[in-house]
Amino acid sequence: MRLDFQEHGAVIPRVEAPVVQSQSPPPLRFDMPTRVLTTLVALSAGYLAVMGLAFVGDAQGLALVFAVFGIVLAGFYGLPWVMARVSGGLGADAFERKGAWGMDTASGYLTSHAALAQILTVPVLMLAWAVFVLAII
Q1: Any residues with CB less than 8 A from the CB of 25 and at least 6 apart, and which?
Q2: Residue 99 has pLDDT above 60, yes or no
């Protein structure tokens, strides 16, 4: 214990705060199977390929637009993978499972089929829209 002197001659004991061990944050993890992530990447690449075929004869300015889209998609899928790899969160059993594969969301737990439908709805519709645009042009 250490004594500190204050004004007017009062002496009070000084108590040090206990040292708290710092806790590192948990490793970043993908919360979906590799097959689902691969399907998302394939659908996005398919969307870019079909839209590229649809507008292949147009001005060269569209090539820059598609290059930007490709870079954005690479960053969209690549950055989380890199962050998870650096933090040590990638692995075969990186996340706890509740029986079959599923996903915890803000509205509750989704089974594997419900989660897959929720994850793939927009990418499948985007690819269908690209095929529709290709058919029109």
Answers
A1: 87
A2: no
Q: Which residues touch 4 (CB under 8 Å, ≥6 apart)? A: 11, 12, 13, 14
- Please give the model's pTM, rounded to 2 decimal places: 0.60
Structural domains in the chain (count): 1
Domain membership of residue 123 (yes or no) is yes
- What range defines the domain where residue 128 resides? 29-90+102-136
Residues near 24 by Cβ (< 8 Å), separated by ≥ 6?
none
